[in-house]
Amino acid sequence: MRTIDEKASPNRQEAAALPDPPAPAYTPLVRHLPWAWAAALCLLYATVAVRRHLLLRTTGYDLGIFEQAVRAYAELRAPVVPLRGEGFNLLGDHFHPLLAVLAPLYRLATSPLTLLVAQSALLALAAVPLVRWALRAVGRRGAHAVAAGYGLSWGIASAAAFDFHEVALAVPLLAFSLEALGHRRWRAAVAWAAPLLLVKEDLGLTLAAIGAYVAWKGPRPLGVTTAAAGLLGSLLQIKVLLPALAPTGGYVHGGNLAATRESLLSALAHAPLDLLRPETKATMLVLVFAPSALLALRSPLALIALPTLGWRLASENGFHWGTAFHYSAVLMPVVFAGLLDVLGRETNRRTVRAALATVLAVTAVLVPSFPLAQIAQRATWRTTGHVEAARALLARIPDGATVAASNRLAPQLTSRCTVVLFPTFPVAGRLYEPGREDLPPPTADWIVHDAEAPEAWPYPKGHWPYPLEQQLAELRAAREKHGYAVVAVRDGITLLHRTPVPRPAATGPARPRPASGRP
Nearest-CA neighbor of 402 among 452, 442, 449? Predict the structure, then answer.
């Protein structure tokens, strides 16, 4: 037991007086339990993700974008992404240089499936520190409950089944950092959390929250330094690095946090209500902590979720308020760390068992509403004629070609072609403006367009980024005005190829030919 500094604050005295938790004497089988759960969850996530891709349910926005970036890293180039616009450096969209660690894997297996499997492994890896902590805090049976609760939680499921995103790198880093916080290994917690600065620009705020927790519960200098590094890192990225790399010269996503009130006083007065309106925001808040049976709210570790929840609630982008997409993945390790922190201090074993039973019950209720349930759906295992037709037509496009493709066909080509979205966009630095009439003419060698709108979570059934009528009008214009010829049409999928423009014949007097031998 460590000695207590007589001048230390009460909370530091309490932290210093507590001995490190002893490592339980488990059999080799139980010691490998965290990794067994991680392997099983990785297999589950990868199965759902790969099947979605094979069924054309992944998208150019976002899987295609991230594959183009990782492909550029693998080829030792800057992450310029044609899907985001001509010459668009993806580091000007979000600051995620840590993506480069996936480049060696992509070099070995040049496929979008590499990114999907890597994401599955990263999300599953976060179970290792959580289950390891659970073995100490709630025993072997409780560890199974925690593993199932985290592994099947809706926040992880939503990320695992929606393309690929950089936040997958943050999930295991946070989980290992939180485990270290729970065991008062302050330096290890900071070391695990520090790379968050290289994953996404808002995660510097999460690093700052971890630093604040360390300053509160542990060594103050380390905590204050970590908090300052997190705040300054995010500020530098948002104010300097991102604008310098973005083609628009500003923070691309700054508009999501634009003030909508007429005055500062009005904004401050309405801020508490605006954070919970519309009701989708309140529903999201409840569901974030629901996998822990709301017990995580009793732990101070829950405060580490505040930066992510804060920017999402303040955002003007409605996608940030709900439970779809990948935005809640980084919150799930925080929620389950909070649960373990609370249960680890509970002395009544009956209360612990009841809490874990509730966690499992909530998990069972929520699973059918989120995408991991796709693994039990018949449609997931059936390859339709439409999918076969798409594969046949895409195979006719040669490697190395430039292609303008529909959103769900784009990631089928990004590993071997230079791909942009059809109809051509972004235009003038803007993502899309539905109904705009002044789209520039296509310049790709090939166009492949799918008139069918597959129903694929989390998007509603429909066409994107422009209505089908406008897309078909652009397809007609490509044939009638821009020199494209129809190669094949099958099951609503149209493949066009640009007809070579004949060079004009040379005019003027013929140049005299030299006599034999050197001139």
Answer: 442
